[in-house]
Write a structure and sequence with these properties.
- 43% of the residues lie in helices and 16% in strands.
- By secondary structure, the chain is of the alpha/beta class.
- The two termini are 40 Å apart.
Length: 435
Amino acid sequence: MSSILIEHLSTDGGTLECSVRASSDLERFFTDEQFRTEYDVPIDDVPDGVLAIPVLAQVCPVAWANGADVYVDEVDATFARALDDVQESLCEMHDFLEGGTLYARRTIEPEPEPRGESGLLFTGGVDSTSSYVRHREESPTLISIRGWTITPDTADDGKWDALRTRVSNFADDHGCETAFVESNMLSFLDHPMLLAHYKRYVDGGWYSSVGHGLGLLGLCAPMAYARAMEDLYVAATHWDGIDLEWGSRPDIDDRVRWAGTQCHHDSYDLTRQERLDVIADYVRSEDPDLQLQTCNDRMDGNCGECEKCYRTAVGLRLAGLEPAQHGYPFSDADYRDLRRSLERGDWVLGQDERHMWADIRDRAREIEPATPAEKAFFEWLENADLDELISTSGPPLSHRLLRAGARNAPTSVYNTAYPAWKTAKAGLRFVRSER
């Protein structure tokens, strides 16, 4: 019987650790690392049933992909019901998910003292900044997570330090508290092996297409309990009318909850351009020097040359702001370079980007271009076939062969070959930055 067992849960100040033991057919999806998460608030007094939420949020989708059951000593009853709801949503979205059952020796229903606090997963990009603006009267705690787009590896120290500094400065300027969470939630899972098995079913990676809504929100549970957060917001990437297989959607995130906390998929009612409008109104009324950070290539500012930087700069112009005043070096000459790069296919673009450029095109139809260069670009965009901008080529043949081999190899063979397989990890990983 396929199964995953959560055991040896322990805390030390702000550190949470536990072991995961899988049945032989599922061992390949886990590395030899213990699950570990570090919070900047003590969690020793948090009930075990809530402490189990972060690891359950990571392993349950893996179990559901294999029709496996999950066993844990204690779980928060509200979260157990939430898992049933999330499982239903994910299984409806992904045909390859089979589902499974959570078994707990004990369920608990703690009643934390309400203090009316709220939290917001925050990077400083368009989506999370728009959500901050909409909920700023709550002074939400700004939560940043290290473990997905920024990994716990030493090589990512500079990116993490830059993010911490930027978010801390934003919080200081806006009278908010911060919370920083660091976890090995993807390295304790064998992410290359998950890709080997399931990449063929998803548009993107395992975590982006399946796991990250439940995973990131669940990771926050002990901290949210300790800080008495009643509401926890995660900014939407997409919007109403876009039906993509994505791991963070209203029918997933709005169903995540545990004792004292309800999660919310925020701003799904706004397109990305409308979120920039929210930011622009806030800039004009309260924060003229607001800086955004969305770059695909760096965390200590925006390069101004990647597709995302260009797309954000154009969106800022359409919202009536000057990009250079908000973190994006951009001039009329960049319209020509942007068009050339889009036509040449310089960037790997997916359905997300197609919808976002369509959103920009819709807004451009409503305004009078400010300059001849802007007019020429929007005329080109009006007639461009956005479907042709989407990358249709798959991963290199060598990676596809590696995946197929890993998928079909017996566990004993895979374990022997794992060091060689791991060297392909950089080429197989697909991480999502905030759109």
